[in-house]
Amino acid sequence: MTWDWGAVSDFMPHFWDGLLVTLQALALGSLISFALGLVWALLMRTPSRWVRWPVGVVTEFVRNTPLLVQLFFLFYVLPEWGVTFSALTTGVFAIGLHYSTYTMQVYRAGIEAVPVGQWEAATALNLPLTRTWTAVILPQAIRRVVPALGNYVIAMLKDTPMLMAITVLDMLGQARLFSQEQFQFTEPLTVIGVAFIVISYLASLLLRALERRLVH
Amino acid sequence: MSIDTQPSPDMNPADKRSNGELIRLEQVTKRFGDNTVLDHLDFSVQAGKHVTLIGPSGSGKTTILRLLMTLTKPDEGTITVDGEQLFPAPEKQVREVRKKIGMVFQQFNLFPNMTVLRNITEAPVTVLGMSKDAAEERARELLELVGLTDHVDKHPSQLSGGQQQRVAIARALAMRPQVLLLDEVTSALDPELVAGVLDVLRDIARSTDITMLCVTHEMNFARDISDQVLMFDSGRVIEAGAPEKIFSDPEHDRTREFLSAVL
Question: What is the recorded membrane topology of this protein (chain A) (predicted)?
């Protein structure tokens, strides 16, 4: 096996395209999973079981079926019902939805970890319920769960190649396309492997900096 | 200062004349599972009085404070504050009546995500609708009262327990409550920090007309500030009277036993 720098430089334009897609999927998927997971976690705390029950069933279902199946379902089945999105939009939504069922549990743990005395102090000060959530409980809960959420960002990054299954050309998609056309596998796959490590590492640095900022 | 000597404070004509009754619990029962913590308790406090609840742990003292703060609900009975019903009552009324009551907790319960200043201004701004400037001015006055003017912009975790508790006192006072509930406010403090907190409370007791309901194991403090001391046992008031009387010449055997154990 020989290493061909020429193949690397031929691959680079495709690599940058793939990198952009991967980063888009990661960033938007993270945002969706953080936001939606919080919504699920809050809905699971409403007193009405007519809310909790459906949310519980849906999120349990999503968490316990493979992301790949969900991608295929959203990409091939929804259009039959007249709902069509681009492959990347579908992929971002699927990843965000899938991971929101994990982040909801992270938020739940964070919310439960806020001492009951905080709720009692809020009651004693007569704070309205929404203000208690937004000013007292959530800031403390979210600060606690940043490291756990960060782990899911890394996990999500490693799941982005699945978008290839619905024709999205992420880094792996670009590498595979290039390999099949040029019959050169080592160089593109090595390049994207290194890229994954670098992105993971940078993301973890970013998260650690965020954690430090949030600690009092 | 008039001093109640009767088991039921509202029997004292001197009090009727002064400010009238502020808190009334009627036939209040509270159970936790099979354990009846309060058993058809009748209990009232006159406006402006400082009442200390003493008794062995589990005798229901703290439960009374928690019922008044609506942190827990009675199983039976009614609770009235300043002539308005707190329980049973619709949520909207509870919110209104609760404005008259403030509480200081054993574990301080300051909001760790807010500065000292915001801990104190948060509720006056969001609940009472005070302007931020007015709330901050008042907060600074209160911090001066509790001797913490240098710590306005710190977070609770940067303060000692005693300092945190003094901020908590300022935070409760910022809402201008008529009643201040003090739930074992020095129990979680290192011994050398207790005096500072008690001095602040003595000061408040002397200089304001706020009604105080205090659960404490600091008998000297209770003797200093109380108009009336109530001895609880098994969810009932077994003896009530002026601190001089209760601490030096208790009538009930149970009170004598308890005091000899804690003094």
Answer: Multi-pass membrane protein
B113 with A143: Cβ contact below 8 A: yes
**Would you list the domain boundaries of chain A?**
8-215
**What count of CB pairs under 8 Å joins A to B?**
62
Residue A82, classified by CB atoms within 10 Å of its CB into exposed (0-12), middle (13-18) or buried (19+), is exposed
Q: How far apart are CA B143 and CA B116, in angstroms?
A: 9
pLDDT in tens, B130-150: 999 999 999 999 999 999 999
Q: Does A214 touch chain B (CB under 8 A)?
A: no
Amino acid type, A191: V
Report the alpha-carbon distance of residue B167 to residue A153 in Å, rounded: 39
At B43 the three-state DSSP class reads strand
Interchain contact B154–A (C-beta under 8 A): no
Q: Which of B92, B159, B164, B112 is CA-nearest to residue A137?
A: B112
Nearest-Cα distance to chain A for B12, in Å, is: 31
Who contacts A204 (Cβ-Cβ below 8 Å, separation ≥6)?
A150, A154
Range A8-215 has CATH code 3.40.50.1360: no
Q: What is the pLDDT of residue B198?
A: 94
Lowest mean pLDDT among A40-49, A199-208, B10-19, B158-167: B10-19
Alpha-carbon distance of B51 to B31, in angstroms, equals 24
Per-window interface: A 138-157 vs B, CB < 8 A? 139-140, 143
Max Cα separation, chain A? 73
φ and ψ of A88, to 5 deg = -65, -45
Which pLDDT value is given to residue B48? 94
Query: Would you call the peptide bond into A128 cis, given omega within 30 degrees of 0 as the criterion?
Result: no
pLDDT, one tens digit per residue, over A85-123 is 999 999 999 999 999 999 999 999 999 999 999 999 999
Does residue A208 carry a pLDDT above 50? yes
CB B117 within 8 Å of CB B171: no
Q: Is B176 near chain A, with CB under 8 Å?
A: no
Given an 8 Å threshold on Cβ–Cβ distance, is A136 in contact with B107? no
Task: Let me know the angle formed at the C-alpha of A83 by A78 and A84, rounded to the nearest 5 degrees.
Answer: 95
Chain B residues with CB inside 8 Å of A135's CB?
111, 114, 122, 126
Residue of A nearest to B115 (CA): A216
A129 has a chain B CB within 8 A of its CB: no
DSSP A74: I
Q: CB distance from B126 to chain A under 8 Å?
A: yes
Cα–Cα distance measured from residue B225 to residue B223, given in angstroms and rounded to the nearest whole number: 6
Task: Write the secondary structure of B189-241 as one string of H (helix), E (strand) and C (coil).
Answer: CCHHHHHHHHHHHHHHHHHCCCEEEEECCCHHHHHHHCCEEEEEECCEEEEEE
Distance, in Å, from the CA atom of B110 to the CA atom of B130, rounded to the nearest integer, reads 20
